[in-house]
Write a structure and sequence with these properties.
Number of strands: 38
GO biological process, one term: glycogen catabolic process
Low-confidence stretches: none
Pfam families: GDE_C, GDE_N
Shape: elongated
Oligomer: single chain
CATH architecture of one domain: Distorted Sandwich
Strand order of the largest sheet: 1-9-10-11-12-21-16-15-14
Protein name: Glycogen debranching enzyme
Number of helices: 16
Distance between the termini: 16 Å
CATH class of one domain: Mainly Beta
Organism: Eshraghiella crossota CAG:259
Structural class: alpha+beta
Helix content: 25-40%
Radius of gyration: 26 Å
Mean pLDDT: 95
CATH topology of one domain: Beta-galactosidase, Chain A, domain 5
GO molecular function: 4-alpha-glucanotransferase activity; amylo-alpha-1,6-glucosidase activity
């Protein structure tokens, strides 16, 4: 196959009218920026929020938890002697507003930028966030033509828990304007925030004439979120619109002004914030060890997921946008791609330390709660095992003496605690069996990554000895053998040898020439292997320490390629399996039943690429083949969330993206396999 070169990959995503010819096309592409503490802004390339999680300012009050939506959107109207032009773009219960028809260009480099052309007037709107603060800026650059014009800006205020919808009149919002700043207070949420204008006259919208058609101007109701409608969710929202800000623009004038929305009464310059975002992107680019365009752009995408956790004063990883918090399993799988391939070693140490602080009974948290009042959930048997892999990879990338000293002094005790608890037994029936393999789960427990449960229905029961857990267990023991001194080194070596013997004898499925997915137990106590063809077996090929022969590893890769590979993700079941679900659509219960029963997962593509290159001899030819296999996933960066990789895809053509529009381990594994196996 011919070589595919991504080294000159674009620094900025540019879209023209051909990319948003109608409303439905326009809402399929969106953007994301974030502030490093759990807050973010997100909308579509035509400016219509397509989901309840979208807004220009989602804040985190106890980072990265306690997230709320404050500034849903902002719209513009232009008035001149020819009439009024409305740039608002959204669906309502009664009609569709198509201001995007005046949108001539959209770009996303460090931040999103909309360019509108109305006759001989050009308006450029840029949206940014202050890193480390719950603050968004909306900046306007206007080049006016031959007419005097007035530009009316309407902010859409709200104050609600992230992802919810609300009747705007039930939010208990109040406003007061003084010296160019609107102060918004919420009786319901007991919160206050600020909206400051650098220019313009504030007009109280309650003074506008009302009618039967428009009984109020200070509330906007009946706004629909199109993707939420499609998914059968509560999708009708409303906002508080107490003021317009009127900007006078003379004929031939170039005008620059901005707005700042924040939980703090700040006085920053919006255009300076945009410059700081350019600077931050350059700093992230400069950290990347290889001068590769795609790797640099992905490093900027990775930055969205790395956030500060208030409870530990350390870094953590948000699992996905727009709704996931920091998950232990996802963090450890994403670790190499997000912070090692991008050379963010200080963040790497911070993340490892953050999770070490939460080890309990040998378990890493599965998920941190959405509010500080709750406690972490520990229902996972794989997060702790992936932690060892993260430690190993950290030492592989950061080779300085201080790196190993950090691991031995601050992380090694947690590693010992994990191994000891897995050996003797811990929560969720997790324990080392007589054959030295790890078993876990019972009844309604779902403690591997295939964790869907619908009421009392366990969709993918994997109680017993999952294949990836035991591949990780062996890897963990070998990591401990490498780290530990004296007799402990020998102890870990001997146990790892026993695990290897048991694994090969019990997991190899000679009929299918691959690995069983789980070794369960029959009523009489004998082994009950699950012969489902699943991608979990790839883990046994790609880890630093593996147990299988080269022929076995090649057979696994061939099986996965034949049965599970798609251009966008790796299926969780082959299409010929009678349980296979081709699409992740419908009611929540229907989607849950498809989640791990055929749906393709983006992050596993990284596993497959690494396994493919390894089993084809790590040759240049294998790398070129892998680049071609990866090309559809690179193309996906231009779809959905620009620069992001979706959580999941339909298992069958056309492999539509679903779930989170940008998932940490999906982005991270794309970075990792590209960095380690292709360039």
């Amino acid at each position: 196959m011919s070589n595919v070169d991504f080294s000159a990959y674009q620094d900025k995503y540019n879209l023209g009218k051909g990319d948003f010819r109608n409303f439905n096309e326009g809402i399929e592409k969106e953007w994301l920026i974030s502030n490093g503490i759990g807050g973010y802004a997100n909308s579509t390339v035509i400016g219509s929020n397509s989901r309840s999680f979208s807004s220009l300012l989602n804040v985190s009050l106890n980072h990265p938890t306690d997230r709320y939506t404050l500034l849903a959107n902002i719209s513009e109207r232009i008035s001149d002697d020819t009439g009024i032009t409305n740039l608002a773009t959204y669906h309502s219960i009664s009609e569709t507003y198509e201001g995007f028809r005046y949108l001539s260009h959209f770009s996303f480099g460090s931040y999103p930028e909309y360019t509108y052309q109305i006759g001989d007037m050009i308006i450029r709107k840029s949206i940014g966030m202050v890193y480390g603060k719950n603050t968004s800026v909306i900046c306007y650059s206007v080049k006016n033509g031959s007419n005097n014009r007035k530009l009316y800006i309407t902010p859409y205020f709200t104050c609600k828990t992230l992802g919810e919808v609300a009747d705007p009149m039930a939010l208990g919002l109040h406003s007061a304007e003084k010296s160019g700043t609107i102060t918004i207070t919420s009786d319901v949420m007991n919160m206050k925030y600020f909206f400051r204008a650098s220019d313009g006259e504030f007009i109280d919208r309650s003074t506008y004439p009302i009618s039967m058609a428009e009984p109020t101007h200070i509330y906007l109701s009946g706004v629909l979120y199109d993707l939420d409608v499609r998914n059968g969710l509560n999708a009708c929202d409303g906002f508080y619109t107490p003021y317009d800000i009127c900007i006078d623009i003379n004929a031939g004038e170039d005008k620059f002004f901005y707005f700042v929305c924040s939980t703090e009464d700040v006085s920053c310059n919006g255009f300076d914030i945009l410059k700081s975002m350019d600077t931050r992107k350059k700093e992230l680019y400069d950290l990347v060890p290889k001068k590769d365009g795609l790797l640099k752009r992905l490093a900027y995408s990775a930055d969205n997921f790395i956030v500060e956790r208030e409870s530990t004063k350390c870094k953590t990883v948000l699992a996905g946008y727009p709704w996931f918090m920091d998950w232990g399993r996802d963090t450890m799988i994403a670790f190499t791609g997000l912070v090692l391939c991008t050379h963010r070693f200080e963040d790497a140490r911070s993340i490892l330390k953050s999770f070490a602080l939460y080890v309990k009974n040998g378990l890493l948290p599965n998920v941190f709660p959405n509010t500080d009042a709750d406690v972490p959930h520990y229902n996972t048997m794989d997060a702790s095992m992936w932690y060892f892999n993260a430690v190993y990879k950290y030492l592989e990338y950061d080779t300085g003496a201080s790196a190993r000293r950090f691991i031995m002094e601050e992380i090694y005790p947690a590693l010992v605690e994990i191994i000891d608890n897995y050996k003797k037994g811990t929560d969720f029936s997790i324990c080392m069996d007589e054959d030295c393999l790890i078993s876990g789960g019972s009844d309604l427990d779902q403690i591997t990554w295939m964790d869907v449960r619908v009421g009392d229905l366990v969709v993918t029961p994997r109680h017993g000895k999952p294949v990836e857990i035991n591949a990780l267990w062996y890897n963990a023991l070998k990591v401990m053998e490498e780290l530990s001194p004296g007799d402990k080194k020998t102890e870990y070596h001997e146990l790892a040898s026993k695990v290897k013997d048991s694994f090969i004898s019990k997991f190899w499925n000679s009929n299918e020439n691959c690995l069983y997915d789980v070794i369960g137990k029959k009523a009489d106590g004998s082994d009950d292997p699950d012969s489902s063809i699943r991608p979990n077996q790839l883990v046994a090929v790609i880890l630093p320490y593996t147990m299988l022969s080269a022929d076995m590893e090649k057979a696994i890769v061939d099986k996965v390629y034949k049965e599970l590979y798609t251009p966008l993700g790796i299926r969780t079941l082959p299409y010929h399996d009678e349980r296979y679900k081709s699409q992740y659509i419908g009611r929540l219960i229907d989607r849950d039943k498809a989640y791990h029963m055929g749906t393709s997962w983006g992050y596993i593509t990284g596993f497959f690429i690494s396994a493919y290159v390894k089993t084809h001899g790590n040759t240049q030819s294998a790398k070129e083949d892998a680049a071609l296999l990866l090309e559809p996933m690179i193309d996906h960066l231009n779809d959905g969330c620009l620069g992001g990789v979706a959580e999941i895809f339909d298992g069958s053509f056309p492999c539509t993206s679903r779930g989170c529009f940008s998932q940490a381990w999906s982005v991270a594994e794309l970075i990792r396999c590209y960095y380690e196996n292709i360039i």
